[in-house]
Amino acid sequence: MISIIVNSWKEPNSIGKVINNIANKEFSGLSQDFELIQVSPDNETLTAGKVAAEKLNLGNRYIQVKDPQKGKPFALKMALKKAKGDILLLTDGEVFFGEMATKKLLYPLLSNPKIGGATGRPISVSDRNTFMGYISHILTDSAHHRRTHTMNKNGDYYISGKTFFPMSGYMIAMRNVISIPDDVLSDDGYMSYELRNKGYEIAYVPDAYVYVKFPDNLKDYFKQKVRSLGGYIQLHKYNIMKKDKQSRSFPIELGYAWFVLTYPKNFKEFIWSILFFPVRLYTWVLIFYQRVILKKGMPKKGWERIESTKY
Question: CB atoms < 10 A from the CB of 99, how many?
Fold first, then answer.
């Protein structure tokens, strides 16, 4: 069985489409028996999810969990206790799977017992003709480049060997064999390393698209990146980087400076690429200050909401 887990908070406008794109068999290609678990703290999103589930006639395959808003890892742990599937599909309530993405994402796990987790390709829907939209395209396309160049081609997907790049939290399929700490900031990174520690390989399916809206202002951008990137510093306290080394750091990113400089299609984009360097440097300064100097962890009320990524 496949257990689909969708985390969503104050996203009544998007949760219905999220559920439909994954669970509507004509669109998703999902042919296996499944259950869909929605974890949300607010009644508006829970109600909207229920309406979408009823339209698909999911019946008792649709399960709701009301979480106490202590952060995504805590919500995930609540859902995992309910999950009956031996394979989990994890996503969020504001990102949309492309057509047949569910089927493509699950294929490596269903066909190869050595694979413990699979991720798809995030596609930015933000406007490339703005500075914030442009840098979101740099980030998603550079992640695609890195995954395809640190993993080995295996038919329609890539598979880790001696090296890998962590799964994207926007779209994850994995075997139900691990748990996560309540306070972990980069749950996708933690799960990726832990699966590798257990002897599994990670797959990347570039044709499994997940469409993502990114921050449209620097304030939200810094909030999001300091949490997600800074979480890789926090991972050291769990001692999970046993088989693999750190995969996200400022020195590692410097090696991709050439990608940023060769990415532009015109002079305006070239200027934006130059401006992206101080933005990214400041991001890592903030990460160092908050995670290393202040040693900040998960806030008591969970992750801070990034408003400009919502619909």
Answer: 13
